[in-house]
Amino acid sequence: MRVLILATVSLMALGACQPETQSASEAAAVAPTLEEMGQDDPSVPFKPAPVGPPRTYDAYSKTAMSFTPGTLSLTETPQASANLPAGATFAFSNGYMLKTTLMPGGAQQGGAPVNFGSIFVDLSGAPIDVSKVVMYQVDEETVPATGAPNGGFCKKTSFLATYTVKSPGAEDMTIAAFEGDTWPPAAETALCGTFTYGSVH
To answer: Is the torsion defined by CA of 4, 8, 13, 17 positive or negative?
Structure first.
C-alpha cells in the first residue's frame, strides 16, 4: 500500500514538472500572422484599391502661372504593395512633373517650423483644418529643359503639402513645396513657395 501511494505521488510530481504542450492548431492560433508582423503573405496576390480618375486644374495664383503656366493634371497612383501607401503624379502642361508617395499623418508631424494656418488661405474665411492637409514625398522630379524658365518649385523639391477648398461648382487646390532631406523640416526656409490651381465644374 505504501509503495502504491509513493508511486502515485511520484507520477503527480513528474506531471507537474513537464512543460505544457500545445497542439499545432493551438500554436498557429496564438502565433502572429504575417500581416501582423508587417509582412505580405506571398500566397495571396495583392490587389491595390482602385484610384480615382485624373483631376485637371488651371494655374490660378501668380506663382502658379509663373512656374507652371497652363494646366495641372493630378493622377492618383495605386499602392505598390500592402505595406506601401498610394501616391500621385503631378503633371503640368509645360512638362514639369512630380511623382510622389503619400505621407499619411505627415502634416501633424510638422512641428513649430511648419504653420499650415499661415501657409494656406481659405478664401471663404474659414480657419485652416490641418487634418485636411495632404502630404506627399517626392520620389521623382522632372524639370524640362524648355518651357519652365523658373525651373521647378524648389532647387530640388522633396515634399508637397496640398490643401483643397471646394465650393459649389468650383475647387481650389494650393500646393506648398518644400526642400530638404527630412520631414519635418529644420527651418522655415525649407518652404519654397505656394502655388494655387483652380477647377470649375
So the answer is: positive
The amino acid at residue 175 is: I
Residue type, 96: Y
Contact call for residues 139 and 101 (beta carbons, < 8 A): yes
C-alpha cell at 196: 494655387
Q: Is the pLDDT of residue 19 over 80?
A: no
Considering only CA atoms, which of 173, 159, 163, 94 is closest in space to residue 132?
A: 163
The CA distance from 177 to 151, in Å, is 13
102, 136 Cβ separation under 8 angstroms = yes
Identify the CA nearest to 176 among candidates 119, 113, 96.
119
| Burial bucket for residue 11 (CB in 10 Å: 0-12, 13-18, 19+) | exposed
Considering only CA atoms, which of 81, 74, 75 is closest in space to residue 49? 81
Question: Among all chains, which residue has been given the C-alpha cell 511648419?
Answer: 114
User: Looking at the DSSP assignment, which residues form a beta bridge with residue 68?
Assistant: none
Give the span between the Cα atoms of 109 and 105, in whole angstroms: 7
Residues 138 and 190: beta-carbon distance below 8 Å: no
**pLDDT score of 7:** 45
101 CA to centre of own chain: 6
**What is the reported pTM?**
0.77
Q: How many CB atoms lie within 10 A of CB 51?
A: 14
* Helix residue spans in the chain (DSSP H): 2-17, 24-30, 62-67, 116-119
